[in-house]
Amino acid sequence: MKASKFSDAQKAFIVKRGEEGVPVAEICREAGISQATYFNWRKKYAGLMPSEMKRLRELEQENARLKKIAADLSLDKEMLQDIVKRNVWSALSLQGF
């Protein structure tokens, strides 16, 4: 994903201006962003300070890393279960079942 050219403080300032009643079209024109970007930021960052925004980003990255680990472990478990199943069937066929 492309890194934003806006810092957390800039995003917080832009969202805060919208909360103060400045028209969204004016905010977007001055900042050089689309209204969709503004509303995405508002949904994600409304009421957060820049330090909280940084912490949120860190938590999202940690969550993504943990999800990847969980997916890898699930795949490993599935492969091991498949191997065990094959070994059981091989053992049973050798015994004449």
Automatic annotation (TrEMBL):
Q: Which domain of life is it from?
A: Bacteria
Q: Which residues form a coiled coil?
A: 49-76
UniProt GO MF annotations: DNA binding; transposase activity
Instruction: Quote the InterPro entries the UniProt record gives.
Output: Homeodomain-like_sf (IPR009057), Transposase_8 (IPR002514), Transposase_8_domain (IPR052546)
Give GO terms for biological process. Answer: DNA transposition
Protein's UniProt keywords contain Hydrolase = no
Q: Please provide the record's keywords in A-Z order.
A: Coiled coil
Keyword Endoplasmic reticulum listed? The answer is no
Q: Which Gene3D superfamilies match?
A: Homeodomain-like
Name by which UniProt lists this protein: Probable insertion sequence transposase protein
Q: Which species does the entry assign this protein to?
A: Roseibium aggregatum (strain ATCC 25650 / DSM 13394 / JCM 20685 / NBRC 16684 / NCIMB 2208 / IAM 12614 / B1)
